[in-house]
Amino acid sequence: MLSVVAPPSPARRLPALGRRSAFPLHASVLVGLLAASSAPTPLYAIYQAEWHFSAMTLTVVFSAYALTLLGALLTAGTLSDHLGRRPVLTGALLAEAAAMAVFATAQGVTTLIAARILQGLATGVATSAAGAALLDFEDPDRPGRATLANGITPVAGMAAGVLAATALVQYAPAPTRTVYLLLLLLFAAQAAAVLLTTETAHPHAGAWRSLRPGMAVAPASRPAMRLHGPGVVAAWALGGFYSSLGPSLARLIAPHTARATGGLVFFTLTAAAGLAVHAARRLPARTASSLGTAVLIPGALLTLSGPHLHSLLALFAGTALAGIGFGAVTQGALRLLLAPAAPDERAGTLAAYYVLSYLAMSVPAVLAGLLTNLYGLQRAVSLYAVTVILLTLTGLGRAVRQPSTR
Question: What predicted TM-score, i.e. pTM, was given to this entire model?
Fold first, then answer.
C-alpha cells in the first residue's frame, strides 16, 4: 500500500498593513522618537540634585545625544534606501528600546551619557528611514500630507515627551524610571508593527559604500538648502538652548518656582512650534520660512529680557514666539527641500536636513554650557540671543536678495 505524502503547506505570511495604517504608524514612530529625545529635559534638575554636576556637564549630556545622532545621520542616513525601510527601522527601534532600559537603570552621569549615545545612534538611523517611509506611504490623493507630517511630528513628539515627563516628575513615585519604561514598551510595539508593513524601498547594492560619512542632498534641493540654511540653524539653535538650559533659566528667574516649570519652558516652545507648523501649511513655503525666521528675533529678545526683568512671563512669551518661528521655519524649509527630491533621494535629503538641524542644536548648547561656567547663565543667555539674532538677519538678508521662485 502506497502512502501518499501531503505536499508541504506554504509558510504562513504575516498580514501586511495597508497604506492607510502604515502612514499613521510611521508618523507615530517619529512622535515616539522625538518624545524620547525630550523626555530627559524635566528630569535634568533631579539628576543634578542627586548627582551634583554642573551646567557644563548638563550640556555635555545633552550634546552626547545630538552629536551621536549627527554621526548616525552622516553615515546611515541613506541606509534604508539600500537595505529597505522595514529592516533598518525595526533594528533602530529595538536599539531605541535598549537605550530606554539603560536610562531606567542609570545610577550616574556616565550611564546617562551612555544612554544618550545609544539613543542618538538609534534615533539618527530611524529618523531618516521613518521620514522617507512617510513619503512612500503618502496617499496620492492627498499630496503634501507627508511633508506636513515630517514637519509636525518631531515638534509634537518633543512636546508630548516633555509634558509627559513633567507630569511624572510631579506625580509619579519614580519619575526617572517610569517614563523610560513606558517608552521602552512603545518602541517594542512599534518595532513589531513595522514588521507587518510592506517594503516600499527597492533594496540594491552599495549599502557598505553608503556608510561613508557624507550628505546626500538632492541636486534640485541644494539651492533651497543654501538659501534657508541660516534660518534653520537659528531656529534649531534656539531649540537646543531651551532644551538644555531652559529649566536652569527658569530657576534663575524664579528660584522657588515649582520644579515642573523648567519642563514647561520647553513644552511651550514645542507646542507653539507644532501649532505654527500646522498653520503655516497654507502659506507659500518660502513665505513661511522667511516669516518664521523674522519671528525668531523678538522671541530671542524677550527671552533675553527675562532674567533682567525677573519675569517668568517674559521668558514664556519669548519661548512661545521662538516656537512659532521654529515651526514656521521648519515647515517652509522642509517643503522647499523635499518637493524637488526624487523618491530615491528622499532619505538622504531628510538626513542632510537633520544633520544641519542637530548640529545647530548641539554645538551652541555646549558653548552655552561653557559660557555659563565661565561667566554665569545670564551672560551666556545674552551671547546666545545675540548669535541667534545675527543668524536670523543673515537668513533674512539672503531671502530678500533672492528672486522669488516659489
Answer: 0.72
